[in-house]
């Protein structure tokens, strides 16, 4: 790729209203293209996609140009844009939308009975609004009729630490270390 070839392809964008045609602006756009594209085919595809009458009605600026490029190619500089002010949901697909048939009355996902049942069952299981089960009741633990206090918990933790420490140094039961 050389600058003159890229500039020649970018001149095709002049069909878009408000496209900057000054030499400084064109030089910056050529620099931008060199930071994204690796071949003239990629540049030609981008210009064709931007001017085919299905996406832009006017010059979208460098951000729109980058978004168009990134919808098909990974830019060399790594700065990929998937959404912009013009296309916040992402750049429109090149492929035309398929014509979809309406489902028969009573069908929610598919005309195929097995697929319909599977999708409905999965939707029911994954429903974020359904209550999965009643809150679990934690059974009461009898503690000799007295409630457990923080002092009881601290004493149990200390006894556990002492038992572990004695086990680590090799003392059993009631032996004392000197």
Question: Key features?
Answer:
single chain, 178 residues, mainly alpha, 6 helices, 0% strand
Task: Provide a short characterization of the protein structure.
The protein has 178 residues and is mostly helical. It has helices at residues 3-10, 23-36, 40-51, 61-70, 113-125, 150-169. Helix content is 43%, strand content 0%.
β-strand amount: under 5%
Structural class: mainly alpha
**Arithmetic mean of pLDDT:** 84
Q: Would you report the number of β strands?
A: 0
**Proportion of residues in helical segments:** 40-55%
Low-pLDDT residue intervals, each spanning 5 or more residues: none
Tell me the span between the first and last alpha carbons.
84 Å
Rounded Rg: 34 Å
Largest sheet: none
Question: What does this 3D model show about the protein?
Answer:
This protein has helices spanning 3-10, 23-36, 40-51, 61-70, 113-125, 150-169. It starts with a helix and ends in a 9-residue tail after the last helix. It is mainly alpha-helical and 178 residues long. It has a domain at 3-70. Helices cover 43% and strands 0% of the residues. α1 crosses α2 (23-36) and α1 packs parallel to α3. The chain is elongated, with a radius of gyration of 34 Å.
Per-chain topology:
Blueprint: H1 3-10, H2 23-36, H3 40-51, H4 61-70, H5 113-125, H6 150-169
Helix pairs in contact: 1-2, 1-3
